[in-house]
Amino acid sequence: MRNSNIELLRLSAMLMIVGFHYIISNPDMSYIIHQPVTFTKFIYQFIYMGGGWVGNFIFFVISAWFLLDRNLSLKDSLRRVWLLERELLFWSVILMVVLVIARREGFYHEGVLWLLPKTVFPLLTSMWWYPTSYALFLILLPFVALALQKIGRKNHLKLAIGVLVLWGAVALVPFPAMNLDLDSSSVFVFIYWLVLMSYCKWYMNISSKNAIILIISGLLVELIYWSAASLFFTITGKKPGFQNFIFDHWKLPTMMIGFGLFILCYRHPFHSRFVNYLAASSFGVYLIHYQPGIYRMWTGWFPLKDVYTSAHPILQGAIIIVSVFLVCLALDLIRQMIFRATIDRHAGKWFEHVYARIEPKISRITNARCFNMSSTPMSDNTYE
User: Fold this and answer.
1) Quick one: average pLDDT of 33-47?
2) In the prediction, which pLDDT does 241 show?
3) How far apart are CA 76 and CA 79, in angstroms?
4) CB proximity list for 8: less than 8 A, separation 6 or greater
5) Residue 313 CB: number of other CB atoms within 10 A?
6) Which residues have C-beta within 8 Å of that of residue 180, sequence separation ≥ 6?
7) Is 257 exposed, middle or buried (0-12, 13-18, 19+ CB in 10 A)?
8) pLDDT of 180-190, one tens digit each?
9) Is the dihedral of CA 248, 191, 258, 169 positive or negative?
10) Cβ-based neighbours of 79, under 8 Å, separated by 6 or more
């Protein structure tokens, strides 16, 4: 049975991601960061926006942690990508139709033709960065996980320390160009996270106490950075963007918070069919609210500047974030019912047919290549 505590965490992570997207990607974000430091600004930046990459990390850990328990193979990974693509195609087509109707009825005023290629090929064109990067990660996972196991605990530890220094410690330097080739929307982020997470899973036994320490430490680091950046802006009026620095991309404090929350939920399970049923639609929330056209439409309905300057900005902001989350969740629950009554009755059946035709050809090519390599004598200059 699924651990419903983790499924509840999955739902919470998606709620944090919705809040993050409403603030960080909003055209009015520049207005907020230029405002004086107030309690409202703290809530909008530290609470509503600050959990976005915590949510991203939680989503990844929940998936990858349990995948590492399985006998990984390329076929299983491709099957997962196939099943993922069905959901992406469903929502890309449905949401495109919604945009066309909304534009005709005057609810949406931008063009839609530029979204047509992304609608037809959502995975290949990165309509959403996360599923595209995750699909690539799934394809690489059997090989990367095997390599990490083969190098052993000692070398794995060295690798984990190395990536922590490069993309953990160095990334805390508040200089935007210092990303060392680690892009925020890349499969490489998932490989980085896998190196750290797999070491923790295979060789460490993190207690609930240590998980709480991770969470508190991460929050303190974020608070210190945000406070320092806000104070610097208040005094000098310069570098307002540094207020968001610690919350964005793959920052180490967000990973500490996310991993600590995951471990707490992992070690304190409970079971609820209702929670598990709701959590199955959490990814659909992401696909619906962050489809480029839909995102522009609903954020246009709730201008961030108007909400921030309203009589009750904290309450109104929370209502908008929660409402968008609940509406998208309800819509994907409908999608879930449709899938159960139709294509999920034989989930992956088409994939099995396609793979059965392709696999013999791949095997012949692979065997021929291996034979040629083994039959070709190596000279002394082979590696020169």
Assistant:
1) 94
2) 86
3) 5
4) 265, 275, 279
5) 18
6) 166, 167, 170, 171
7) buried
8) 777 677 899 99
9) negative
10) 348, 351, 355
